[in-house]
Amino acid sequence: MSTASTPSLWEIRKAVKPWLSDSSQTILFGCSGGADSMALALALYLEANGTKIIPVVVDHGLQPGSAQVTTQTISKLKDIGYTQIESAVAQVKITDGLEASARRARYRVFQQAIETFSPVAFMLGHTKNDQAEGVLLGLARGSGTKSLSGMQEVSGIFIRPLLGIDRTTTEIACSEAGIEFWNDPHNSNHDFTRVRVRENILPLLENEIGPGIADALARSARILREDATALDEWAEKVF
Which of 9, 62, 95, 164 is deepest in the core (most CB within 10 A)? Predict the structure, then answer.
């Protein structure tokens, strides 16, 4: 595949490549079938260089046809070239909102896969847009420094190599490679606060203040995370 004809995919490949230096290890990654995770799947497969890469597909069972989406995602992963693919149905018990409950159930599936395969890392497809949305939601809640610092690129075994890449790039990367991705209906459901931030608030800020809001919010998250880490280290030395 020519890098000249796939500049967006090449950008994602460059983002994952530093994490694939040891071919003797196993790496897992979560794959929903959406643009972010399918672009991650493509990049990891192309850059694996002997590293064993295993996708983990989770069916949350929250929408009609979710099992079919899982089957289609597995089929697309096989088309890319993956031969070992893990899938499971998450047991979602809604206690404090659909998103938070689904996330907990998803991570329980991820943890089971981690215990089974003992990978060196588990990769997630969160992008710069996810980071920006999270920071805005934190500001709306009046959160402190740790919450506003957003997601970490490395959090224990979990790695988010695409935090510096925007969602448009992942969508274009899939198009460049001829991979169809799934558009989760929940991502356009305005009952969810994050969707309203994504589709209403961020575009409004871009129009009224100027382009680059997502970049600025992600940069602020990084600065706050560095500050929070420094404060924690200082407090540990003092106390």
Answer: 9
Strands ordered across the beta sheet of 52-59 = 86-89, 52-59, 26-30, 121-123, 158-159, 154-155
Query: Phi-psi category of 67—alpha, beta or left, where left has phi over 0 and alpha has psi -120 to 50?
Result: alpha
Q: What is the dihedral of CA 24, 25, 28, 34, to 10 degrees?
A: -50
- Give first-to-last CA distance, the chain, whole Å: 55
pLDDT 10s digits, 10-52? 999 999 999 997 777 899 999 999 999 999 999 999 999 889 9
Torsion (CA) 154, 155, 161, 167 in degrees, nearest 10 = -130
Tokens representing 176 are: 């460049």
Spatial separation of the C-alpha atoms in residues 52 and 25, rounded to whole Å: 6
